[in-house]
Amino acid sequence: MFQPDMLDLVKVLDMSQGKGITFEVIQYEKLEGHYDKSAPHRYINKLRQVRAYLNGGELVTESGALQFMKGAINMKVDSSIGSIARGFLGGALTGESSVKPRYTGSGEIYLEPSYSHFLILEMDNEEVVADKGIFYCCEGSIEIGVFTQKNLSSAIAGGEGLFQTKLKGSGSVVLQSKVPFEQVLIYHLNNEKLQVDGNYAILRRGAIEFTVEKSTKSIIGSARSGEGLLQTYRGTGEVWLIPALRFVDGGNSLLSV
């Protein structure tokens, strides 16, 4: 636990109560120390961290995510040949780590601080397809796998790649993001179509089909419109978009404060 005089310096941004585990996303409101001339924006973009309280539950994280832990906590990694092979293949395809430690017991776990943002996703007996590399940690009840695009043309033209991260089950998941939750647009589709010019979708859930389609019926018309190919989402469910992603990726990290 933090010392009493530190309570005003640490803010809980979000939390989730799972089965024997509580997740918190915390933010350090004021940090005093070394000034990094190569990254002056860090005085504006605050440091954040994921904190988990275990009470008989299980935490699964990316490899190397642990900063420190306190209490009667056990860490284990499946070292069977089959698990190692599946983990290596899945990590190579989705951009996640090939080995994911599992923590059980009772106590506190602090994961590595970051200037990124953390989004808590609640899952209820469902399947979610997430962008490559954004998985950070989850409850042990969540199954982590690989989603394969249905056709090669969508994978190449859509910018998503042939493989993405698949999450399945019930429980809490923490995703790492370049922007806070307030800058994520969540579109609820009810047997509808959503078309996006660019790779701004980070997640979809429900019965959503992803394809890449021309903006008009003809190739010439698509070229003249200046839009070309559009990422197309059809069905019933949710699509999470980050419209400002191109500016964040462009290096202006002040936009992600």
Q: How many angstroms separate the termini?
A: 26 Å
Oligomer state equals single chain
By CATH reckoning, the class of the largest domain would read Alpha Beta
What proportion of the residues form beta strands (DSSP E)?
over 45%
Concise overview:
The chain is mainly β. It folds into two domains: 4-184 and 242-256, Double-stranded beta-helix (4-Layer Sandwich), CATH 3.60.160; 185-241, no CATH class. Helix content is 13%, strand content 51%.
Textual characterization of the structure:
With 257 residues, the protein is mainly beta. It has two domains: 4-184 and 242-256, Double-stranded beta-helix (4-Layer Sandwich); 185-241, no CATH class. The chain has helices at residues 81-94, 152-158, 219-225, 245-249; strands at 10-17, 21-28, 48-61, 66-76, 102-111, 117-130, 135-139, 143-148, 163-177, 185-196, 201-214, 229-241. Strands 1, 2, 3, 4, 5, 6, 7, 8, 9, 10, 11 and 12 form a twelve-stranded antiparallel sheet that branches. A hairpin with a 3-residue loop joins strand 1 (10-17) and strand 2. The longest helix is centred in the middle third of the chain and has 14 residues, at 81-94. It is globular and about 55 Å long. The relative contact order is 0.15.
Explain the layout of strands and helices.
Blueprint: E1 10-17, E2 21-28, E3 48-61, E4 66-76, H1 81-94, E5 102-111, E6 117-130, E7 135-139, E8 143-148, H2 152-158, E9 163-177, E10 185-196, E11 201-214, H3 219-225, E12 229-241, H4 245-249
Antiparallel strand pairs: 1-2, 2-3, 3-5, 3-7, 4-5, 6-9, 6-11, 7-9, 8-9, 10-12, 11-12
